[in-house]
Design a protein that fits this description.
The structure is a single chain. The chain is α/β, with parallel strands linked by helices and about 425 residues long. It is built from 14 helices and 21 strands. It has 2 domains: about 180 residues, Flavin prenyltransferase-like (Rossmann fold); about 200 residues, Rossmann fold, CATH 3.40.50. The longest helix is centred in the C-terminal third of the chain and has 16 residues.
């Protein structure tokens, strides 16, 4: 299969890997919570993803964030009331509800959710909600006792019974000084939820995907460790692509600091041994296993219990090989399973990747080269070559890691079929 045919197959599957909100019409409702300031970050992220954003502010919300700020960020006038001007023009809540592809109320206060749940249309935001024919998402924000109160829970359940979706509040320090659940979900998480909504196509429904990602850290003493430059970006991009294709995704991740969409199960580990043990635990139940982690090849033979003091100009540490996770688990691979690995080479790239493909029992291997500018560790882009057991080689151009993840998923789906 050449690249042109491969691209056609990718289009048929859909552009799941490039997670954008291009040309989507988002109607953002902001109600009166201290968390209203996060609407500025949320608006910027939505615009960055290509969405067209219109904002409705309640009177209370305008006490926390100004219409001018959100109008500047959204590039659209901010609406605050039914009456537009003294000439009798008005903001038509029906037209607004019909315009939107999605209505997002964030932050959603207890008052606003109660009014929406019970049809109390005393402001433009609630009236527009009642007129909306599009999906509606509520992202609550309030103090923990309010969030846990029976009336709030009943209103949330009522909203969900109408077909609305709720992006649950997060736990943490609250404006009251208390700590608990009630914080508005972070803007990145909210945007990821909308991306999931628009891009979701269940081509891999009922498939269980196991992905390793990020670096490992091999302790030398309580302070120092051996590691590498892996950021985990490629592994997370792959996890998102498969999640948006309807798969159940488990990611075994070394130390990374990347936002991961809600719905992807993440198990955090540090060392190669920990990654092996967790991956082995979930291996047999997985249909597709993707080894995207940069696992340290060696670890300290003995970990010092106290910080090693500097005594001379030179120091030697005895190292031992870590477990080869892919090779070890490859011996346990069943007929129903598909395995893909990664190879990062600096010389004889194709030959070394083909050798690794056979040696570790992979069905497919993605080769990167550190010779390619913009590819490899820490970049937002990558350039890969895919090799399979039939000797097929597909070389791709430099792309975003989201787009690369799409190519990898397409290649796997082709071979599963």
């Amino acid at each position: 299969m050449n690249i042109e045919n491969f691209s056609n197959l990718t289009s048929k599957i859909s552009n799941l890997g490039v997670l954008k909100l291009q040309d989507k019409k988002i109607l953002l409702g902001v109600s009166g919570s201290i968390a209203a300031y996060k609407a500025t970050f949320l608006t910027r992220l939505l615009i960055k993803e290509g969405a067209e954003v219109k904002v409705i502010l309640t009177k209370a919300a305008a006490e926390f964030v100004t219409p001018l700020t959100l109008a500047t960020l959204s590039k659209n006038p901010v609406l605050t009331s039914f009456v537009k001007n003294e000439q009798g023009e008005w903001n038509n809540h029906v037209e607004l509800g019909l315009w939107a592809d999605v209505m997002l109320i964030a932050p959603a206060t207890a008052k606003t959710m109660g009014e929406c749940a019970n049809g109390i249309a005393d402001n433009l935001l609630v009236a527009t909600y009642l007129s909306a024919r599009c999906p509606v998402f509520f992202a609550p924000a309030m103090d923990l006792d309010m969030y846990q109160h029976g009336s709030t829970k009943a209103n949330i359940e009522k909203l969900q019974s109408f077909g609305n979706q709720v992006i649950e509040a997060e736990s943490g320090e609250l404006a009251s000084g208390l700590s608990g659940q009630g914080r508005l979900a972070e803007p990145e998480r909210i945007v990821n939820r909308l991306i999931r909504h628009f891009s979701y196509k269940p081509v891999l429904k009922n498939k269980r995907i196991l992905i390793t990602a990020g670096p490992t850290q091999e302790a030398i003493d309580p302070v120092r460790f051996i590691s590498n430059h892996s950021s985990g970006k490629m592994g997370v991009a792959i996890a998102k692509a498969f999640y948006n294709a309807g798969a159940k995704v488990t990611m075994v991740a070394g130390p990374i600091s990347i936002s991961i969409p809600e719905g992807i199960k993440v198990i955090a580990v540090k060392s190669a041994q920990e990654m092996f043990e967790v991956t082995q635990k979930h291996f047999a139940d997985s249909h597709i296993i993707i080894f995207a982690a940069a696992v340290a090849d060696y670890a300290a033979a003995e970990i010092a219990s106290q910080k090693i003091k500097k005594k001379s100009d030179e120091m030697s540490i005895e190292l031992k090989k870590t477990v080869d996770i892919a090779a070890t688990l490859g011996k346990e691979k069943g007929e129903h399973q598909f395995m893909i690995g990664f190879a990062l080479e600096t010389q004889d790239a194709i030959e070394n990747a083909q050798s690794k493909l056979q040696r570790k029992g992979f069905d497919l291997i993605a080769l990167n080269s550190l010779q390619d500018k913009g590819a490899g560790f820490r970049y937002d882009t990558n350039k890969i070559t895919l090799l399979d057991t039939d000797g097929e080689i597909l070389e791709f151009e430099l792309k975003s890691k989201d787009a690369v993840a799409q190519d990898i998923m397409t290649a796997i789906i082709k071979r599963l079929k």
